[in-house]
């Protein structure tokens, strides 16, 4: 899939903007605050229904205006479709239309315009808390597997409810034998999520080695849990049963469900050492970009559709060989949109189209 045209109205710093993009590498240059990330953010909103950096939709509406819109024409296998996202901050209403037909739920959008985003704060995937690494897998799997997306939503509600019951038991409001059905549900949905995550991690490791790093260096992910190892359904079920029997009192005391995919982590290693504690900033950034590109290739192999690759602030902190190395992998994708401050940041690869962004306006470079 590639994006042929983006149109913005009252989105962030843009009054109105129309950009014609091409397959291949499209670059947005501009000084800090020019509005480069705003363009990638708008496309991400079309892909997922929400921003990657605004906590609220109203922040996306240009100051002093009431409503914004993002319109994207995307081409997949020769078929062009229009995706239109509108948000009205007065009515607090968001709506999405595909070829003029309104989607009944925003969640139906997930996966229609697949995209992977790398932004500088993604380095926290390597450096930060386990929740960010779990989210990496959850977001990726939600784009390729609608059943995963629905199961995850159900599972999160079930865990919240089970925690509420544990608290009730602790406070003597709820009977100790009222958890049975919730244990069964959480085990079943938890295992469904775990098996999908295990296979995604294996898939990502193969892609990293076979398609991206070769034997130049190694980046590997390892799924880790305190309560089970990567295994099959039967073994996981036994781990759950044993855990619930042994840790019931502790779970009541803490009022928290202590087993399951919401408690796990993914260890990331660079050249066989934990990247979190041993790798340099540049190596951590390289690792994160490559994991994101591997995510893109996984989406391509499972869905048969090329995701649009969005690289925000590319190359800050990557040296010339690493930047060139990443550039070589771009030929594996259909379309890459890159924002960067300086042309010199893009060494070793040639853009198909370049834009200069200045004060909420974009001009093509020839
Ligand atoms: N709702 C809004 N209304 C008007 N302007 C906004 C709104 N939200 C953000 N801006 C403006 O958009 C600009 C930021 O744009 P953006 O984040 O795209 O910059 P950038 O080109 O990516 O810069 P950098 O190189 O620093 O990352 C800022 O000048 C900010 O004031
Ligand atoms: Mg930016």
Would you give an account of this structure?
The protein has helices at 36-48, 124-127, 130-144, 146-170, 180-213, 233-246, 248-254, 275-278, 281-303, 320-329; strands spanning 2-11, 14-20, 24-29, 67-76, 79-88, 93-98, 101-102, 115-118, 219-224, 265-270, 273-274, 308-311, 335-340, 353-358, 361-365. It is of the alpha/beta class. The chain folds into two domains: 1-114 and 305-366, P-loop containing nucleotide triphosphate hydrolases (Rossmann fold, 3-Layer(aba) Sandwich), CATH 3.40.50.300; 126-302, Glutathione S-transferase Yfyf (Class Pi), Chain A, domain 2 (Up-down Bundle). The strands form three sheets. It has a six-stranded antiparallel sheet with strand order 2-1-4-5-6-7, with helices on one face. Strands 8-12-13-3-14-15 form a six-stranded mixed sheet, sandwiched between helices. The chain has a three-stranded antiparallel sheet with strand order 9-10-11. Helix 4 packs across helix 5 (180-213). The protein starts with a strand and ends with a strand. The model has no long low-confidence stretch (mean pLDDT 94). The chain binds adenosine-5'-triphosphate and magnesium ion. Residues 12-13, 30, 32-38, 59, 61-63, 313, 339, 341 line the site of adenosine-5'-triphosphate. Residues 36-37, 312-313, 339 line the site of magnesium ion.
Short descriptors:
6-stranded mixed beta sheet, 6-stranded antiparallel beta sheet, 366 residues, Glutathione S-transferase Yfyf (Class Pi), Chain A, domain 2, binds adenosine-5'-triphosphate, 41% helix, Rossmann fold, alpha/beta, 25% strand, binds magnesium ion
């Amino acid at each position: 899939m590639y994006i042929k045209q983006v149109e913005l109205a009252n989105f962030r710093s843009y009054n109105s903007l129309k950009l014609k993009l091409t397959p291949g590498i499209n670059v947005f240059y501009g000084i800090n605050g020019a509005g480069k990330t705003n363009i990638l953010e708008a496309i991400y909103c079309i892909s997922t229904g929400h921003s990657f950096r605004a906590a609220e939709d109203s922040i996306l509406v240009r100051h002093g205006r009431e409503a914004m819109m993002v319109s994207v024409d995307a081409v997949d296998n020769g078929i062009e479709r229009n995706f239109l996202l509108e948000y009205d901050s007065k009515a607090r209403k968001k709506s999405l239309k595909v070829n003029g037909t309104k989607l009944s739920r925003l969640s139906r959008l997930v996966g229609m315009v697949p995209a992977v985003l790398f932004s500088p704060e993604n380095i926290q995937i390597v450096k930060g808390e386990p929740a960010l690494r779990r989210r990496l897998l959850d977001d990726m799997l939600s784009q390729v597997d609608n059943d995963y997306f629905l199961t995850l939503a159900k599972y999160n509600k079930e865990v919240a409810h089970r925690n509420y019951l544990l608290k009730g038991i602790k406070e003597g409001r709820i009977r100790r034998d009222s958890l049975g059905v919730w244990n069964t549900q959480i085990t079943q949905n938890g295992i469904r999520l775990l098996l999908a995550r295990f296979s995604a991690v294996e898939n990502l490791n193969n892609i990293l080695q076979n398609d991206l790093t070769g034997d130049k260096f190694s980046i590997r992910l390892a799924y880790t849990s305190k309560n089970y190892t990567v295994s099959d359904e039967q073994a996981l079920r036994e781990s759950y049963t044993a855990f619930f029997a042994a840790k019931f009192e502790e779970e009541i005391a803490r009022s928290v469900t202590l087993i399951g995919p919401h408690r796990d982590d993914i260890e990331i290693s660079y050249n066989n050492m934990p990247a979190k504690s041993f790798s340099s900033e540049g190596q951590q950034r390289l690792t994160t970009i490559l994991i994101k590109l591997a995510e893109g290739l996984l989406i391509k192999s499972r869905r048969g559709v090329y995701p649009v690759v969005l690289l925000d602030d590319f190359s800050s902190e990557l040296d010339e060989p690493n930047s060139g190395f990443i550039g070589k992998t771009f030929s594996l994708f259909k379309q890459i949109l890159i924002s960067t401050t300086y042309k010199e940041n893009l060494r070793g690869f040639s853009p198909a189209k370049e834009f200069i962004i200045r004060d909420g306006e974009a001009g093509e470079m020839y």
